[in-house]
Amino acid sequence: MSNDYPKIKGGVASEETAMGAIGAVFQPELIKLMKAVLDDAAATLPVSKRTSTMMAEMASQILARAAKGERDPAALKIAALLAVVECSHYSHDISPERRAV
After folding, report:
1. CA-to-CA distance for 35 and 46, rounded, in angstroms?
2. Which of 2, 8, 44, 45 has the fewest beta carbons under 10 Å from its own?
């Protein structure tokens, strides 16, 4: 997608659960925005990095930021892509011999 993100205000209602965890209910417009951001972030990755694990990690970061009130598509995309960097960081530190093990 080429930054044709839906425009939204607010979009999330949080509630405290009995266990002390916070749950979030996202409005349809915000869900569309988050999906568009995830698709856009994924499109910037090489195909080999678009694994279900990587997509789930990016989605998790987008959801976490949105639950805290972030609505800027660029900020959400950066958070998603930073998750990719974090997940990939250690694989570059391992020698080729150790990777083969």
Report:
1. 19
2. 2
Q: Token pair 């509630």 is at which residue? A: 15
Q: From CA 10, how far away is CA 16, in angstroms rounded?
A: 18
Ordered per-residue pLDDT tens for the chain, 101 residues: 445 665 555 554 444 333 344 567 899 999 999 999 999 999 999 999 899 999 999 999 999 999 999 999 999 999 999 988 887 655 555 555 555 54
The three-state secondary structure class of 12 is: strand
End-to-end CA distance of the chain: 39
Measuring CA to CA, how many Å separate 16 from each of 23, 24, 37, 45, 63?
7, 9, 27, 36, 17
Helix (H) / strand (E) containing 67 = helix 52-67
Q: Is the pTM of this model over 0.70?
A: no
